[in-house]
Amino acid sequence: MMLQNMRDNAQSWVAKVIVGVIVLIFALTGWESISRFSSDAEKAAEVNGEVISKLELEQAVALQRRQLIQQLQQMGNNSFDPSMIDERFLRTSVLDGLIERSVLLQGAKDAGFDVSEQMIDQLILSTPDFQVDGKFDSNRFDIVIRNMGMPSRMAFRDLLRQQLLITQYRNGYEATAFATPMERQQLVELENQTRDFSVIDVPVGDASAVEVSADEIQDYYTANAQQFMTPEQVVLETLTLSRADFFDRVDVSEEAVNELYQREIGNLAEQRRASHILVEVPDEADEADAKASIEAAAARIAAGEDFATVAADVSDDSGSAREGGDLGYVVKGSFDQAFDDALFALQEGEVSAPVRTSYGYHLIKLTNLKAPEVPTLDSMREQLVQELKSEQVERAFVDASQELANLAHEASDLAEPAAALGLEIETLGPVERLGGEGLASNPKVMNAAFSDDVLKNGFNSELLELDADTVVVVRVKEHLKPEQRPLEAVEQEIRELLAYDKAEQAAADKVEQYIAGLRSGELTAEALAEEQGSEWQQYEAVGRSSSEIPTPLLRSIFGLPKPTAEQAVYARVNQPAGGFWLVALRGVATAEDVQVEDGPASQYQQFIAGQSGQQDFSAAQEQLRTEAEIERF
């Protein structure tokens, strides 16, 4: 993992700029961040007298919201409801980003950094996203920046200039940081250090045998009252429209089925197998020579020579020429109009006269005919009926959905919409905000159910489209607000919790007693193992990246001080699932014989310098932020 971090920190700053400009800088700001509005504009914030307008903030918020939705959709979360986004949190985060950007830009300018027009030109010209076949393409450039939301090339250049300034400023700290030879060697030794240790499990005892008094239960209940509240819940009434329900409500006539059948079989095309000989006409000056060549080929075929032989000898279509000119089976409309007309005018085995197309001159031979296979009406009946019904169902479903939306908006409950559309009101719940099963598992439903209009004002929800075939309207029938659960209902829960806590504390105390005994010599490792009815697990020369040791245990072991020759270092480590490890660190071996490679290419040097540079830049950034006069409106 460390070496991967080293490689990550070794990336060039130019590459970071290119990627950052095209992708990352739009996550917090739109193109509008390139300009500042006049003092008369409505303000969102002010940084050292430089205004961030409310318009700029709203545009940046809209862009961030759109990108968040796109990212969730790319991750496969198509059921995400945009209205679930916390607008206040989003707006605050975006404003913080705009302020941070303004602070850094001012810091970069005060430090004397500048970006030339030539540098911007070079970066744009060398960016792969703006290239076609490896070369800069102005049309491609316009398309990409337009998709980014940029109004003009100049706007993009200004935004690029800002990003380069910030990158230069960051690079001034990160690229100039360094690591001393001693630091590099220390890192090598630490990274390659191994440890010898022993581990024994000390589990939590039987909590059911632990006594917990009524006073302890009462005290815990009083001190942690918020833990014992019932969840906020709602009971919902729902009306659901499903496209599938409409198939039984529509009928199709035999006449309509016959008409559709005739259309379907009328579209079945005859297939013709063709071969051709092509003589290309690369230039108008070659027209006469090409025509002469195709006529000569036609004469050879008329004289009895095999078409395939002539095609292999003459045709400029190298792909088909190897197959004697064969193009396989085709249907009408597969080629140029002139080619099609000539092919479908031929009888089987007949060769056409020379035909001129945009490719050149052709000789065409019809080698085989394949009549279409016409299915019977009975074999297609189910498919035809389904298709005809689908057309009617689509119209009926759309009309019913719109009527449901209108009725639900106007009605004071769901009874009127249900009666008008012949739907049944279903009851769902109680369910919590996080949802439940069935409709309650859909975020759109739960978000609507707990919205102010539905929950507090008692309105029907808007029409919710769950998928392409299902819509629903919901209404809160009953709102169950959080209430304090009585002590009697949670007494056993508290008793078990306190009993386990006592048992765990007893196990922890036992481990500390073991450690004290081992340190003083009053207790031997063998006696401890016998008392525990377990065995010490021995580990030799374990490195920091070992995958055989649980991560919490390994991390704790490498955080222990080095043992002396006379005594091991003992420690208690919590197990994630409960219980403890008692650790005896017996030895630490440093890799003093491993020498770091010389020169600036050292991965260890890059890692240390990178970490130091990032810390320096973060400190400078914090200082700029602290000294800046920032006012939010």
Write up what this structure looks like.
- The chain has 22 helices and 17 strands.
- It has 633 residues and is of the alpha+beta class.
- It has four domains: 177 residues, Triger factor/SurA peptide-binding fold (Orthogonal Bundle), CATH 1.10.4030; 132 residues, no CATH class; 108 residues; 102 residues, Roll (Chitinase A, domain 3), CATH 3.10.50.40.
- β1 and β2 form a beta hairpin.
- The longest helix is centred in the middle third of the chain and has 34 residues.
- The protein is extended and about 115 Å long.
How would you summarize the topology of this molecule?
Elements: H1 2-9, H2 13-22, E1 43-47, E2 50-53, H3 54-74, H4 87-110, H5 117-126, E3 131-132, E4 135-136, H6 138-147, H7 153-174, H8 181-191, E5 194-202, H9 214-223, E6 233-242, H10 254-266, E7 271-280, H11 287-302, H12 307-314, H13 318-321, E8 326-330, H14 337-343, E9 355-357, E10 360-370, H15 377-410, H16 415-421, E11 426-432, H17 443-449, H18 452-456, E12 464-467, E13 470-480, H19 487-520, H20 525-532, E14 537-543, H21 551-557, E15 569-574, E16 580-589, H22 603-627, E17 630-632
